[in-house]
Amino acid sequence: MSRSRHTALFTLITVAALTLTACAEPTDTSGGGSDKGASKGKTPTTDVVSKVRKDEAAAKLLPAGVREAGTLRIASSVGTPPGAFYEEDGSTPAGADIDFADAAARVLGLELKREVASFEAILPALGSGKYDLGTGNFGVTDERRRTIDFVTYINDGQGFAVREDSELKKVTDLTQLCGLDVATGAGTTFEVTLQENLPRCAEAGRKPYNVKTYADQAAVWISLQQNRTDVVMSTINGLRYAVSQQEGLRFLNEFKRLDVGFAFKKGTPLAPAFQAAVNRLKEDGTYDRILKKWGTSESAIETSEISPPELK
To answer: Residue 71's Cα: distance from chain center in Å?
Structure first.
């Protein structure tokens, strides 16, 4: 994904936000609560990571070689808030995925060597050994579990957003999309779900919906704003955040919940340590502070799991 496009999307969202009554959670620099004096439309800058301390019990679960090296290679997909996006400088990644990864690494006494990569490229690159782990709001599906190990840290899922003038009120069945242009991210669970269900429109005697995929989330939202698509299918948290920052759009509804996790090569020895790290973050309160910062407290999980079955 190009940095210039991400920067363009950040600008689009920020400018639109100035005229909205809904806004992101206020900024806080103390590591606790929120700053009521923060400007409307600003993305959160709360420091919820720097005070996290190493947990020796969790760190001992790491392979000896990793403990000695003290570093891991992480690939991060950077798209839009609240998951991961570029700050105003156009080069610094921020977001819930970034905070969770950095916090877990601190629990384990590790330094992350981060490389930004496109969403669709990360999972194959884990299998080849290019990276040790990846983040990108990766939903845990049975198909992905065949080749990838996951350590869960939030619960998100699939949902829809439309323009305010759309006649769609709620999508409970994908046949309600028949005849429409649907925008979504390339290589995502949304694309898979839409393609798998595409024949159902013909079976119902209706015109199929047209799936338009984009490698860049900026293009997804621009297509909706410019009437080139009728509905967006994406992450629940991402949709809610985006429509709160842009005029003329509305969140439609949740469609399906999915656990989200750090992604690893199948059979990784790193999973138990990262599971322990997430659970440690829950114990010390950092977990809840990260969710609160990004306005995603409804995505909390009770405990981290390693590659649980797909939520049905």
So the answer is: 23
DSSP bridge pairs for 168: none
- In whole angstroms, what is the distance from residue 152 CA to residue 309 CA? 11
- Span of 2-11, 208-217, 246-255, 273-282 with lowest mean pLDDT: 2-11
Q: Are 277 and 54 in contact (CB under 8 A)?
A: no
Query: Which pTM does this prediction carry?
Result: 0.80
Distance CA 236, CA 242 (A): 10
The three-class DSSP label of residue 47 is: coil
Mean pLDDT score across all residues of the chain: 87
**Residue type for position 278:** V
- Rounded to whole angstroms, the Cα distance separating 280 from 57 reads 10
Q: For 258-300, write each residue's pLDDT tens digit.
A: 999 999 999 999 999 999 999 999 999 999 999 999 989 999 9
- Which tokens go with 165? 């003038």
Q: Give dist(CA 249, CA 166) in Å, integer.
A: 9
Q: Could you tell me the pLDDT band of residue 41, with boundaries at 50, 70 and 90? A: low
Cα separation values, 4 from 88, 97, 310, Å = 11, 21, 35
